[in-house]
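Researcher: Please translate sequence to structure tokens.
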Amino acid sequence: MRIHGASAATGDRRPPSTVFHDRLSLLAEKLLDYSEQGDSDSVSHLLVSLLTEQAPGRLRAAGSLYAEERILNGVVRIFCTHSSPNFHMPWQRQKQEYSTSSGFVISGRRILTNAHAIEYGALIQVKTRQSEQKYVANVVAVGHECDLAVLEVSDDAFWRDVEELSFGELPQLLEDVSVAGYPVGGDSLSITSGVVSRIDMQEYAQASADLLAIQIDAAINPGNSGGPVFNARHEVIGVAFQSLTADDTENIGYVVPVSVIQHFLQTIDRSMRSSEHGSPRYAVCSLGCQLQSLESPALRRFLQMVDGDTGVRVAGIAPLAPARASLRVNDVLLRIDGIPVGNDATIPFREGNARHERVHVNYACTQKFVGDAVQLQVLRDGQRLNLSVPVWVRESLIPRNLLMPPAASAYASAATASLALGRTPSYVIVGGLVFMTLTREYIESEFKLKHMAELDSWREEFALLAQAGASRRVPHEEIVVLSEVLAHPCNVGYETYRNLRVVACNGQPVVNLRQLRAMVDAALEDVPPEASAASPSALLSFTCHGGATVVLDVAQVRRAQRQICQEHFIPSPYSPDLLEHRPTKTAVVNEDRSV
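Model: Translation complete:
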């Protein structure tokens, strides 16, 4: 039962305090009647109705949400046991950790939450607010770049009393919003309220992707992640996902906007329709260019821009980007999909909006799907050109381990490997030398701040760090590092070597870790067991960046491999992804399955 404000309906001219007192008296009478009847639901609705009629905007939005009990039945709590990879010992995982977060029910018997809420999840469970039972959930799809994940629950009992939530439109500035979820500080559902403070391109911490985000001043605390953000019409306009914490800031929370959510869900649907096996993958598209703003009049004159022209300069193009076939350095991008580009590298956002919002030009590319193209108007040597340029998914030279698909192993195929549990780091062990693919997580776990003060002794590590923003120059390119050396008599003299970039094996350039394994196998197969240790063909050499060279005796390596693995409880000298099939001499480089 809901009671509407009599003063609003009848034009009551009495002072608000008198109206409130009379309404309170009426509520007391109703309360007695409903209490005698045992109708607790009607009592709660009366309380909320009175509160929302007299409260200001923010409180009214939160109270109104409570009045719609069925809406809150769509908000769930997520329990996850995380089993993260160990980037120092890649053949095992770290000690398991436990977290709680939030999520909500969407169409198709699915649950939407944050990707970071279920990353490396060994066990994921969900629980509704009206039930004491937890239900096991599985990951259907994950987009770490946009920090979103879709879960499913196979138990029909879970779906009996839940409410499917609907999406609204992208909110306006100063619009009232409410955040629902299960933050720290209690076990029951929590609702906080605020307003939309800003809509802008922001870096998503989960995978360092720049996407549209909503900034609000409602509290977003640990545990809120994945929870829905409602507008005044009880429609979901975003997903709470991160907050800004600093000494000079307060109440700055960020929300994945509904436009990014819809793009993610549409990508999943497209991928499922086109893929015959494996899990759907989400990717953020870009132009593949480094852009420079043109706020300098002298620079604009140098590029032959005339009065009234605005745009950005192409300062560089990624080696593998399709734009390399159409664009050139010093081209000026004047328009993208018909939208004029500003000298500050921004474009109008939501044209026709009185607030004249602007976002970075790359926003136009993030709205595209893989295979789409953008229409560019370009100024080149004073001539205006119209070009159609395919968008591109950046192939980082140092990728994130999170973005790599789960690898097949002796226990699971690539199609059935756990999408939530993720992929363990790739490695190859040769005579105690541990070779790994360099990833951002490896850098984060290996290089601590205390190392930064020791520039001379850590110069090789700084050389690796300098590659963090680079893109691949050739397909499947990786940086292979000698991570550490497991000390053994076969590798005497190298036991202190670590974090060295490997550039060649037996004089042949190293492109990626899979190719390195193939070259090592070929070298071991070429040497008969009875070969003399003095023979040049019985040696295996690795050349590192900076000139260091590691040479091993092949016969000793053969004898030591099993012993080293047993001593360190290593199940295999190769990571699961490199055990999918044994590379041969005629197929040295196989397709890299990383995204």
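Researcher: Any highlights?
Model: Confidence is low (pLDDT under 50) at residues 1-17, 408-417, 449-456, 583-595.
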